[in-house]
Amino acid sequence: MAIKILLTLAFLAVMVGVGVYSRKHSGSVEGFVLGGRNVGPWLTAFAYGTSYFSAVVFIGYAGQFGWKFGLSATWIGIGNAVIGSLLAWLVLGRRTMLMTRHIQSKTMPDFFGTRFSSEGLRVAASVIAFVFLIPYTAGVYKGISTLFEMSFHIPYEYCVVVMAVLTALYVILGGYKATAINDFIQGVIMIFGISAVIIAVLGLKGGLVDAVQKLATLPSDADPGANGAFAAAFGPAPLSLLGVVILTSLGTWGLPQMVSKFYSITDEAAIRRGTVISTVFALIVAGGCYFLGGFGRLFEPATLPNGRIAFDSIIPSMLVTLPDILIALVVLLVLSASMSTLASLVLTSASTLTLDIIYRDKASTAGEVSAGQMNDEVVAKIERRKVVVMRVLILFFIALSLLIALNPPTFIAQLMGISWGALAGAFLAPFMLGLYWRGVTKGAVWASFAWGVGITVANMLAGNPVSPIDCGAIAMLGGFPVAFIASLVTPKPPKDHVESIFRCYE
Q: Can you give the pLDDT at residue 445?
């Protein structure tokens, strides 16, 4: 216990120390939200990866889908690396960096508002982002607190509150720069942590070969007479596995907290280097998490009162018998993954509300002072006021997500499915098409918003007849035909405006 407590306290002290150190970079909006658009490839790649993989993946997804698919769950991690990291950087990285700088966009809602000349889209995107990032944040809280409860025997409620306070502290102090530096430190811990844990857990079952052989003897849930499905290449349910790969991999392309990483990177050379770094990171961390989860049936997780498996207890059940030093490493691993994701989520939400609703445009900023008074001193004062508002909203967002985390309605994986389905279903198609296609229209963006949010909420209100995971995948893929068809039948944007936007690629 002493080892776990000392390492955890040292880790938290470093995180807060980085926040204090980064205060000098957080005085302006550009510095607080984007790190001055001067963040290098290593910090950006690790920020992308650590925001991607949190306790939601390690505790929630790896446990639930490892139990459901066996070793084939590893394909989810491979998909995360290839689709969610490699292709995301190749397809979105350069174009996002160039266009957002050209139109001076700081957030995804700001991108929609400026790219399509619509204040309505800016506000609608802000509301969607704020509302549907909350269940994702609650899922992250639940994941880390489940592990803390197991390791330190501290009540879940206390873990959630302490986690929220510490994350808020370093984000409020240092903004994006503090988040990026901490993400790098946390990413290094995650790489070493997942490698050590896999070796130790497999050692408990006699090594890799023996563990796979034991897994192959287990009967399938659908056909108790058939053995070997959980050790097969594509598992017992290949189509369901494909849906999870799509949700968890393609979803990153439309999530505000992920895409914003491309806003802040330094230049095109950094994009190329970051692509490689991010892909390798994802392959190790995500591939390792799902590979580990694939052996969950060899252990004894807790059950719910109705007799069903408590999916969020599967990974903790694999770790509980490890030596104290390894459990301490796991605690740091999950803390690292979770705090980085939380920091990204709260910063995205607060900056979106501040810049896209409270200070919607330059006119609203200028209205705060009399004509002729917009000198450098006044502009700096308004910038500081915006940063203060963002810091207040960070506290507000954390408080809201805490209310959900203290009484979570479902498993971690389902919380994330609802969040990713609505956000990526609404944003992915119009954002990507907006970077590449001159013909996408304002009406198409509205249609995509209605589609992504509508199908997710309708499924939720109907009691989830389609699992949130599969519904999320449908929402993301369906957004493309919705946006394309709507672009053909709605009014075209002014040609001169579109040409001025796309001039950034010349």
A: 96
